[in-house]
Amino acid sequence: MESLDPILERLITIKRPSRPLPLSTRLMWTALAALVYIVMTITPLWGIPRVQPSGPLYNIFYNPLVSTIFGTTYGTWAQLGIGPIVVAGIVLEILQFSGLLPFDLEDKKDRLRFSAFQKLLALIMAAGETAASIAMGAFGHLTPLQALAVFIQLIAATQIVILLDDMIAKGWGFGGSAINLVILLSVTRTFFVDLFSWNLPSVPGVNAADYPAMQLPLGFLPALAVAIYNTIHGAAPSIADLVFRQLPPPYGTSLPDIVSFAATLALAYVIVYIEQMHVNIPAAYTQYWGIRINIPLRFMYVSVIPIIFTAYSLILAEQIVAGFATLTGGISPALALLLTAMMPARILSPDYIVLHILLYAALATVFAWLWGQIGGIGPDEYAKNLVESGLHVPGFRQSEKIVARVLRRPINTLILLSGMIAGTLAALGDIFGVWGSGIGLILLVEIGLGYYMQILQEGLMEVYPGLRRVIGQ
Length: 473
Hints:
Elements: H1 5-8, H2 23-41, H3 56-61, H4 64-70, H5 83-97, H6 108-135, H7 144-169, H8 178-196, H9 220-232, H10 239-243, H11 258-275, E1 278-285, E2 292-298, H12 304-328, H13 333-341, H14 350-374, H15 379-388, E3 391-392, H16 400-431, H17 437-463, H18 465-472
Antiparallel strand pairs: 1-2, 1-3
Pfam families: SecY
Keywords: Membrane, Transmembrane, Transmembrane helix
GO cellular component, one term: membrane
């Protein structure tokens, strides 16, 4: 990889601040990063025709669920979102922990090379995705000049996102990464629309006059206000029409209603409760004889990565199956049911419910296990961190292999359980029509809790600076 140093050294980067910044300053820079990304989501790409997007790439990369996860907005500078950074990071993590890359992350220079290589790979992936989107007509018909303009704009947009991520990661901002910030903004935007939008719902091929649910505003609060007013004055649509706003087949579209509002609150509470659960592992300091502590392992040991993989895999599989059905000119009832079960929807059919939950739970469990083995979060890596911190499990020698053997059973169990529970909760969220989808709600709660706990910790450190020195020791 040293042969790439001339290229890696020329990548635009952000320098670390000369001294640690106070929490208020870091929050200010984080807010600025959020503002920059919000502006990107409303800045249209120059050169693309204003046509309805279509094509297989659009269906995969700009699916509403993928857009929520990766923060993409079609036809804007946020067209690619954080997708290139996330995919590049996951690919490099897998390759590194599989021993296929020559980086020694214990060495400072190699850590810098690894970080720079991730930025370079993200730019390469952005270029490839943009070129493929243009070639497959995701932007409609473009002249060579328009295609070049779109390509340059999206590469520049990806570079901006990389710099925002670099800025936050190097201590200017808060939260450790712009990835969490963009996901939080994306899911929050969906919640904001579902809660406050005054626009009337619009579904292609549906006459709003035929469905009372379509005659109320899209947002829950405006719809509730209109429904209460109509109920008081004996008009329609009333509160009864807001309880369950579901269009019948073949549309199947669900709109924000009382059921989805209650389901969102209930599932959010369940996720918060589970996120606070821990499994304690007894440990002791090697240097200080007799001092014992409990190391809390999160019950949801790994959840975000598996459900992201699950959602993306199901969307990709759905497009492949749909394409196959188009080529063959037909589809069997069993395959049609499987195709429907792959997509998040509020469908109260026993077949769909069972199959959707099984698909999500099984895939999330498989991806959780794979990520636990190659993502650097397994018992071997955890044992290494414990030993390097001067800790050991009481009753056992201070050896990485012995500690790893002790931790293998609880950690592997938590990996499997957390994947299965995350997949099941995500599927249940889809079935009950929670806002932002089940996966979006899990991401929102996890990232929000992470920010909340970090703000509390940073605030405590500023009030009591001595705690930082104690923890540092």
